[in-house]
Design brief:
heterodimer, A: 87 residues, mainly alpha, globular, B: 255 residues
Protein backbone atom coordinates (compact mmCIF):
# COMPACT_ATOMS: atom_id res chain seq x y z
CA UNK A 1 0.00 0.00 0.00
CA UNK A 2 1.66 3.26 -1.12
CA UNK A 3 2.18 5.97 1.48
CA UNK A 4 0.24 9.24 1.37
CA UNK A 5 3.31 11.01 -0.05
CA UNK A 6 3.51 8.46 -2.83
CA UNK A 7 -0.22 8.60 -3.55
CA UNK A 8 -0.03 12.38 -3.78
CA UNK A 9 2.79 12.14 -6.32
CA UNK A 10 0.90 9.51 -8.31
CA UNK A 11 -2.18 11.71 -8.50
CA UNK A 12 -0.13 14.69 -9.72
CA UNK A 13 1.65 12.64 -12.40
CA UNK A 14 -1.32 10.56 -13.53
CA UNK A 15 -1.54 12.59 -16.75
CA UNK A 16 1.36 10.41 -17.95
CA UNK A 17 -0.81 7.30 -17.82
CA UNK A 18 -0.99 4.95 -14.85
CA UNK A 19 1.76 2.45 -15.69
CA UNK A 20 4.24 5.13 -16.71
CA UNK A 21 3.40 7.23 -13.65
CA UNK A 22 3.88 4.33 -11.19
CA UNK A 23 7.02 3.20 -13.02
CA UNK A 24 8.71 6.59 -12.95
CA UNK A 25 7.91 7.17 -9.26
CA UNK A 26 9.07 3.66 -8.33
CA UNK A 27 12.36 4.08 -10.21
CA UNK A 28 12.92 7.47 -8.55
CA UNK A 29 12.31 5.97 -5.10
CA UNK A 30 14.60 3.01 -5.94
CA UNK A 31 17.37 5.47 -6.66
CA UNK A 32 17.09 7.01 -3.19
CA UNK A 33 16.76 3.64 -1.43
CA UNK A 34 13.03 3.80 -0.79
CA UNK A 35 9.86 2.11 -2.03
CA UNK A 36 6.28 3.30 -2.66
CA UNK A 37 5.16 1.46 0.50
CA UNK A 38 7.65 3.15 2.81
CA UNK A 39 8.34 6.51 1.13
CA UNK A 40 8.21 9.57 3.35
CA UNK A 41 7.61 13.05 1.88
CA UNK A 42 11.35 13.72 2.04
CA UNK A 43 12.09 10.45 0.22
CA UNK A 44 9.71 11.48 -2.56
CA UNK A 45 11.29 14.96 -2.69
CA UNK A 46 14.72 13.32 -3.11
CA UNK A 47 13.30 11.00 -5.78
CA UNK A 48 11.96 14.04 -7.64
CA UNK A 49 15.52 15.40 -7.88
CA UNK A 50 17.16 12.03 -8.53
CA UNK A 51 14.95 10.80 -11.39
CA UNK A 52 11.39 12.02 -11.66
CA UNK A 53 12.14 15.59 -12.81
CA UNK A 54 14.59 14.33 -15.44
CA UNK A 55 11.98 11.91 -16.75
CA UNK A 56 9.31 14.61 -16.76
CA UNK A 57 11.53 16.91 -18.87
CA UNK A 58 11.33 14.36 -21.68
CA UNK A 59 7.57 14.46 -21.62
CA UNK A 60 6.57 18.05 -20.87
CA UNK A 61 9.76 20.06 -21.40
CA UNK A 62 12.04 21.65 -18.78
CA UNK A 63 9.84 24.62 -17.82
CA UNK A 64 6.69 22.62 -17.14
CA UNK A 65 8.66 19.84 -15.44
CA UNK A 66 10.24 22.39 -13.07
CA UNK A 67 6.84 23.90 -12.36
CA UNK A 68 5.33 20.51 -11.53
CA UNK A 69 8.25 19.56 -9.29
CA UNK A 70 8.08 22.86 -7.36
CA UNK A 71 4.32 22.40 -6.88
CA UNK A 72 4.79 18.78 -5.76
CA UNK A 73 7.56 19.68 -3.33
CA UNK A 74 5.38 22.36 -1.76
CA UNK A 75 2.56 19.83 -1.34
CA UNK A 76 4.96 17.27 0.11
CA UNK A 77 6.32 19.80 2.63
CA UNK A 78 2.79 20.61 3.66
CA UNK A 79 2.06 16.90 4.06
CA UNK A 80 5.20 16.42 6.14
CA UNK A 81 4.21 19.38 8.31
CA UNK A 82 0.83 17.82 8.97
CA UNK A 83 2.50 14.51 9.89
CA UNK A 84 0.70 12.60 7.12
CA UNK A 85 3.75 11.17 5.39
CA UNK A 86 3.07 7.52 6.15
CA UNK A 87 0.11 5.46 4.94
CA UNK B 1 15.85 6.76 -26.47
CA UNK B 2 17.03 7.63 -29.99
CA UNK B 3 16.27 5.97 -33.33
CA UNK B 4 19.56 4.04 -33.36
CA UNK B 5 18.78 2.47 -29.99
CA UNK B 6 15.27 1.63 -31.12
CA UNK B 7 16.42 -0.13 -34.28
CA UNK B 8 18.75 -2.32 -32.22
CA UNK B 9 15.74 -3.91 -30.54
CA UNK B 10 15.39 -7.56 -31.71
CA UNK B 11 11.65 -7.21 -32.33
CA UNK B 12 12.13 -4.04 -34.39
CA UNK B 13 14.83 -5.83 -36.41
CA UNK B 14 12.54 -8.86 -36.90
CA UNK B 15 9.68 -6.64 -38.10
CA UNK B 16 11.93 -4.82 -40.55
CA UNK B 17 13.38 -8.12 -41.76
CA UNK B 18 9.88 -9.45 -42.41
CA UNK B 19 9.13 -6.31 -44.40
CA UNK B 20 12.35 -6.71 -46.40
CA UNK B 21 11.57 -10.38 -47.16
CA UNK B 22 8.11 -9.42 -48.39
CA UNK B 23 9.62 -6.68 -50.58
CA UNK B 24 12.14 -9.10 -52.12
CA UNK B 25 9.48 -11.76 -52.71
CA UNK B 26 7.04 -9.30 -54.33
CA UNK B 27 9.49 -7.17 -56.29
CA UNK B 28 12.32 -9.56 -57.22
CA UNK B 29 11.11 -13.17 -57.06
CA UNK B 30 7.56 -12.51 -58.23
CA UNK B 31 8.10 -13.96 -61.71
CA UNK B 32 9.59 -17.29 -60.54
CA UNK B 33 7.57 -20.51 -60.69
CA UNK B 34 6.43 -21.95 -57.36
CA UNK B 35 6.80 -18.65 -55.54
CA UNK B 36 3.06 -18.25 -54.94
CA UNK B 37 2.93 -20.18 -51.65
CA UNK B 38 6.02 -18.56 -50.08
CA UNK B 39 4.61 -15.16 -51.13
CA UNK B 40 1.32 -15.93 -49.40
CA UNK B 41 3.09 -17.32 -46.33
CA UNK B 42 5.28 -14.25 -45.84
CA UNK B 43 2.36 -11.93 -46.53
CA UNK B 44 0.11 -13.61 -43.94
CA UNK B 45 2.96 -13.91 -41.44
CA UNK B 46 3.19 -10.11 -41.31
CA UNK B 47 -0.11 -9.27 -39.55
CA UNK B 48 0.24 -12.44 -37.40
CA UNK B 49 3.69 -11.38 -36.21
CA UNK B 50 2.55 -7.76 -35.76
CA UNK B 51 -0.38 -8.98 -33.63
CA UNK B 52 2.04 -10.98 -31.47
CA UNK B 53 4.28 -7.93 -30.99
CA UNK B 54 1.25 -5.81 -30.08
CA UNK B 55 0.06 -8.49 -27.65
CA UNK B 56 3.45 -8.31 -25.93
CA UNK B 57 3.06 -4.54 -25.65
CA UNK B 58 -0.41 -4.81 -24.11
CA UNK B 59 0.96 -7.37 -21.62
CA UNK B 60 3.81 -5.02 -20.72
CA UNK B 61 1.34 -2.30 -19.72
CA UNK B 62 -1.13 -4.76 -18.17
CA UNK B 63 -4.83 -5.02 -18.95
CA UNK B 64 -5.73 -3.06 -15.81
CA UNK B 65 -3.92 0.06 -17.01
CA UNK B 66 -5.32 2.62 -19.42
CA UNK B 67 -2.40 2.21 -21.85
CA UNK B 68 -2.71 -1.58 -21.58
CA UNK B 69 -6.39 -1.44 -22.57
CA UNK B 70 -5.52 0.71 -25.58
CA UNK B 71 -2.92 -1.79 -26.84
CA UNK B 72 -5.15 -4.75 -26.00
CA UNK B 73 -7.90 -3.42 -28.30
CA UNK B 74 -5.33 -2.61 -30.99
CA UNK B 75 -4.03 -6.19 -30.69
CA UNK B 76 -7.58 -7.46 -31.08
CA UNK B 77 -7.99 -5.42 -34.28
CA UNK B 78 -4.64 -6.55 -35.70
CA UNK B 79 -5.57 -10.18 -34.93
CA UNK B 80 -8.82 -9.77 -36.86
CA UNK B 81 -6.88 -8.25 -39.76
CA UNK B 82 -4.62 -11.32 -39.70
CA UNK B 83 -7.67 -13.61 -39.71
CA UNK B 84 -9.14 -11.57 -42.58
CA UNK B 85 -5.96 -11.97 -44.61
CA UNK B 86 -5.99 -15.75 -44.06
CA UNK B 87 -9.66 -16.01 -45.12
CA UNK B 88 -8.88 -13.84 -48.17
CA UNK B 89 -6.04 -16.20 -49.15
CA UNK B 90 -8.33 -19.19 -48.70
CA UNK B 91 -10.84 -17.64 -51.15
CA UNK B 92 -8.06 -16.76 -53.55
CA UNK B 93 -6.54 -20.26 -53.52
CA UNK B 94 -9.99 -21.82 -53.96
CA UNK B 95 -10.49 -19.74 -57.11
CA UNK B 96 -13.39 -17.89 -55.52
CA UNK B 97 -13.69 -14.13 -55.81
CA UNK B 98 -12.51 -12.78 -52.45
CA UNK B 99 -14.17 -9.40 -52.96
CA UNK B 100 -16.64 -8.90 -51.40
CA UNK B 101 -16.51 -11.91 -49.07
CA UNK B 102 -16.43 -13.07 -45.46
CA UNK B 103 -12.86 -11.74 -45.35
CA UNK B 104 -14.24 -8.22 -45.78
CA UNK B 105 -16.63 -8.73 -42.85
CA UNK B 106 -13.65 -9.66 -40.64
CA UNK B 107 -11.49 -6.82 -42.00
CA UNK B 108 -14.27 -4.31 -41.31
CA UNK B 109 -14.97 -5.78 -37.84
CA UNK B 110 -11.28 -5.22 -37.01
CA UNK B 111 -11.77 -1.48 -37.20
CA UNK B 112 -14.17 -1.47 -34.24
CA UNK B 113 -11.72 -2.43 -31.46
CA UNK B 114 -9.06 -0.21 -33.05
CA UNK B 115 -11.37 2.79 -33.22
CA UNK B 116 -12.30 2.11 -29.58
CA UNK B 117 -8.60 1.94 -28.65
CA UNK B 118 -7.85 5.21 -30.42
CA UNK B 119 -10.86 6.83 -28.76
CA UNK B 120 -9.71 5.64 -25.31
CA UNK B 121 -6.23 6.97 -25.98
CA UNK B 122 -7.52 10.31 -27.29
CA UNK B 123 -9.81 10.86 -24.31
CA UNK B 124 -7.62 9.44 -21.55
CA UNK B 125 -6.58 12.87 -20.36
CA UNK B 126 -8.37 16.10 -21.05
CA UNK B 127 -6.27 18.02 -23.53
CA UNK B 128 -6.39 21.76 -24.01
CA UNK B 129 -7.49 22.14 -27.63
CA UNK B 130 -5.88 24.83 -29.69
CA UNK B 131 -6.61 26.25 -33.13
CA UNK B 132 -3.16 25.50 -34.57
CA UNK B 133 -3.29 21.77 -33.75
CA UNK B 134 -6.90 21.49 -34.90
CA UNK B 135 -5.94 23.18 -38.19
CA UNK B 136 -3.06 20.69 -38.71
CA UNK B 137 -5.45 17.75 -38.14
CA UNK B 138 -8.10 19.27 -40.44
CA UNK B 139 -5.60 19.94 -43.26
CA UNK B 140 -4.12 16.43 -43.10
CA UNK B 141 -7.54 14.77 -42.96
CA UNK B 142 -8.81 16.88 -45.86
CA UNK B 143 -5.70 16.00 -47.87
CA UNK B 144 -6.70 12.33 -47.53
CA UNK B 145 -10.48 12.75 -47.77
CA UNK B 146 -10.61 14.82 -51.00
CA UNK B 147 -8.68 12.40 -53.26
CA UNK B 148 -10.58 9.52 -51.64
CA UNK B 149 -13.90 11.12 -52.53
CA UNK B 150 -12.81 12.21 -56.02
CA UNK B 151 -11.12 8.98 -57.13
CA UNK B 152 -13.12 6.40 -55.16
CA UNK B 153 -16.26 7.69 -53.43
CA UNK B 154 -17.90 9.59 -56.23
CA UNK B 155 -17.13 7.25 -59.17
CA UNK B 156 -18.19 4.13 -57.25
CA UNK B 157 -21.37 5.69 -55.90
CA UNK B 158 -22.50 6.80 -59.34
CA UNK B 159 -21.54 3.58 -61.17
CA UNK B 160 -24.72 1.73 -62.15
CA UNK B 161 -22.87 -1.50 -63.15
CA UNK B 162 -21.34 -2.04 -59.72
CA UNK B 163 -23.57 -4.08 -57.39
CA UNK B 164 -24.79 -2.59 -54.11
CA UNK B 165 -22.76 -4.90 -51.83
CA UNK B 166 -19.50 -4.18 -53.68
CA UNK B 167 -20.27 -0.46 -53.53
CA UNK B 168 -20.97 -0.60 -49.79
CA UNK B 169 -17.84 -2.64 -49.02
CA UNK B 170 -15.63 -0.51 -51.28
CA UNK B 171 -16.75 2.68 -49.58
CA UNK B 172 -16.71 1.33 -46.01
CA UNK B 173 -12.92 0.90 -45.95
CA UNK B 174 -11.99 4.48 -46.91
CA UNK B 175 -14.62 5.88 -44.53
CA UNK B 176 -13.34 3.80 -41.60
CA UNK B 177 -9.75 4.69 -42.53
CA UNK B 178 -10.57 8.39 -42.38
CA UNK B 179 -12.26 7.98 -38.96
CA UNK B 180 -9.24 6.02 -37.71
CA UNK B 181 -6.81 8.54 -39.18
CA UNK B 182 -8.72 11.37 -37.47
CA UNK B 183 -8.24 9.79 -34.04
CA UNK B 184 -4.62 8.82 -34.77
CA UNK B 185 -3.80 12.36 -35.87
CA UNK B 186 -5.51 13.77 -32.78
CA UNK B 187 -3.35 11.63 -30.49
CA UNK B 188 -0.20 12.21 -32.55
CA UNK B 189 -0.63 15.99 -32.79
CA UNK B 190 -1.72 16.58 -29.16
CA UNK B 191 0.24 13.87 -27.37
CA UNK B 192 3.06 13.08 -29.80
CA UNK B 193 5.38 15.93 -28.83
CA UNK B 194 5.33 14.79 -25.18
CA UNK B 195 4.37 11.36 -23.91
CA UNK B 196 3.27 9.55 -27.07
CA UNK B 197 5.97 9.87 -29.73
CA UNK B 198 5.14 6.37 -30.95
CA UNK B 199 1.80 7.66 -32.14
CA UNK B 200 3.50 9.57 -34.97
CA UNK B 201 4.44 6.13 -36.25
CA UNK B 202 0.97 4.71 -35.58
CA UNK B 203 -0.60 7.62 -37.52
CA UNK B 204 1.78 6.85 -40.40
CA UNK B 205 0.60 3.21 -40.34
CA UNK B 206 -3.04 4.31 -40.55
CA UNK B 207 -2.19 6.66 -43.44
CA UNK B 208 -0.53 3.73 -45.27
CA UNK B 209 -3.61 1.59 -44.61
CA UNK B 210 -5.82 4.37 -46.02
CA UNK B 211 -3.59 4.62 -49.11
CA UNK B 212 -3.72 0.85 -49.70
CA UNK B 213 -7.49 0.60 -49.16
CA UNK B 214 -8.29 3.58 -51.36
CA UNK B 215 -5.97 2.41 -54.14
CA UNK B 216 -7.45 -1.09 -53.96
CA UNK B 217 -11.03 0.25 -54.11
CA UNK B 218 -10.16 2.43 -57.12
CA UNK B 219 -8.39 -0.40 -58.97
CA UNK B 220 -10.98 -3.06 -58.10
CA UNK B 221 -13.70 -0.78 -59.43
CA UNK B 222 -11.80 -0.59 -62.74
CA UNK B 223 -11.30 -4.37 -62.72
CA UNK B 224 -7.54 -4.10 -62.27
CA UNK B 225 -5.42 -5.60 -59.51
CA UNK B 226 -1.74 -4.91 -58.95
CA UNK B 227 -0.17 -7.39 -56.54
CA UNK B 228 2.50 -4.86 -55.52
CA UNK B 229 -0.29 -3.03 -53.71
CA UNK B 230 -0.06 -5.78 -51.07
CA UNK B 231 3.27 -4.30 -50.02
CA UNK B 232 1.52 -1.17 -48.74
CA UNK B 233 -0.60 -3.33 -46.40
CA UNK B 234 2.55 -5.17 -45.35
CA UNK B 235 4.17 -1.81 -44.59
CA UNK B 236 1.09 -0.68 -42.69
CA UNK B 237 1.04 -3.77 -40.43
CA UNK B 238 4.76 -3.49 -39.76
CA UNK B 239 4.69 0.26 -39.08
CA UNK B 240 1.72 -0.26 -36.72
CA UNK B 241 3.70 -2.73 -34.62
CA UNK B 242 6.82 -0.54 -34.79
CA UNK B 243 4.74 2.38 -33.46
CA UNK B 244 3.62 0.33 -30.48
CA UNK B 245 7.11 -0.95 -29.90
CA UNK B 246 8.57 2.55 -30.03
CA UNK B 247 5.96 3.78 -27.55
CA UNK B 248 6.77 0.91 -25.17
CA UNK B 249 10.55 1.35 -25.47
CA UNK B 250 10.19 5.09 -24.97
CA UNK B 251 8.17 4.60 -21.79
CA UNK B 252 10.36 1.73 -20.61
CA UNK B 253 13.44 3.94 -20.69
CA UNK B 254 12.01 6.00 -17.81
CA UNK B 255 10.82 3.12 -15.66
Amino acid sequence: MPTEACKLTHSELMFLGDILCYGIVKKGLDKVGSTPDTATPSDVAKALDAHIERALVSFVGPAEARQKVIKLKAMLMKLEGSGGGQA
Amino acid sequence: MNAREFFRDPLAIALLALGAINAVVYLVLNSLDGIEYPTIAFYCATPVFSALVLFGISRFYGKGSSEGRVWFFITMGMTLWAVGEIIWVFYDLSDMDPFPSAADAVFIAAYMPIILAFYLKATFTKVEMNAKNNAIIAVLLTAVAIPTFVYVGNPIMTDTDYDLLSKAVSLTYPILDIILLGFALFVAVYWGPTISKGWYIVATAVALMALADTSYAALEWQGVYISHLDLIWVASYIVFALGGLYQKKHHESFM
